[in-house]
Amino acid sequence: MKKKLVLAYSGGLDTTVIIPWLKENYDYDIIAACVDVGQGTETDGLEEKAIKTGASKYYLVKCEDEFVTDYIYPILKADAVYEDKYLLGTSAARPLIAKKLVEIALKEGASAIAHGATGKGNDQVRFELTVKALAPNLEIIAPWRIWDIASREDEIKYLEERNIPVPMKKDDSYSRDKNLWHLSHEGLELEDPANMPNYEKLLKLSNTIENAPNEAQFVELEFEKGIPVKADGKEFAPADLVKYLNEIGGKHAVGIVDLVENRVVGIKSRGVYETPGGTILYAAHRELEHLCLDRETLSFKAIVANKLTDLVYSGRWFTPLREALSAFVDKTQETVTGKVKLKLYKGNIIPAGASSPYSLYNQSLASFTTGELYNHKDAEGFITLYGLPLKVNALMKEQNKKTGLNN
User: Fold this and answer.
1) In terms of pTM, does the model score above 0.90?
2) Percent of the chain with pLDDT over 70
3) Cα 363 to the chain's mean position, in Å?
4) Is 355 a catalytic residue?
5) Is 148 marked active-site?
6) At residue 157, what are phi and psi to the nearest 5 degrees?
């Protein structure tokens, strides 16, 4: 009886090549598994395609809502952003995809898992750390690290030589990753950071700034304990809420990012990310936190967010530290409940008001008019004590100058 292998299958160029390559170089029954985290029509026809190219079985695992609730919400509540720009779209999806691959492998009695991540990329780390955390005895095969194929052009040639349809046009061979949260683009003109992206050709979810409407649109979001539950007064299932905001944000060219980032393996890479709905949610969530969280909690939470971001980006989702940091974040979100209104216009998100039953904003304190809760004279004593270390340091320097100790 042949051993079984589960392949993370998308039907894109890499995995279209990998199935016949595995058949030529290994003696496995190949189980192609597509985990649907919001790829949309990209999953259409994949079963027939996988079987035709050599797979013995195909799985389609639909988990859009799970992706949002268990992976997107934790990074949203943390305000996790990598290198000030990237909202972790691919990073958050990979551990879920790998988890589903492990579940299929254990169900099928497979001995190995394969993926199409390159030896230069982050995804190999994210896939494999998840497998090691959840099923350490499974073998991992990463063709990009061992085959003779050196480029996307080589992959296209490989398929053409075997009369296998190429799943893309040669002049549009961007490397793309799409899920419910974002769409990433790499390759072609983006490989030179001196080139401006060809946005008219590149963008799929969003209008360009120039093609965005000339009239602004308002959107109102309602949160409960840091989780979005309503948009424009309507309740949505988690995935449907993101889709709704993707449509609105894409229309107004919100959430388009051009980033040269530091990969886990030490290489700088350049990509363009479209995250329209996610960018709206992050902006609204931040506005509400500024209203509801005290100064020290907000400040320390930023430190936690930085570390949690690093863990997620580098594939360490299933670790005790990530779980502990997420537990801290959940505690901070107990009062992050309320409504936020935003104005969308030509790629911009403009705050248009926020309210919460847990708001720490006190109009009596904030007003220039003296109220019962604040006596201006009290500030004198506060500043005296707050500035005491500065005063003591200055007096020490003056004394040392008089005695010549500083000479």
Assistant:
1) yes
2) 96
3) 36
4) no
5) no
6) -60, -40
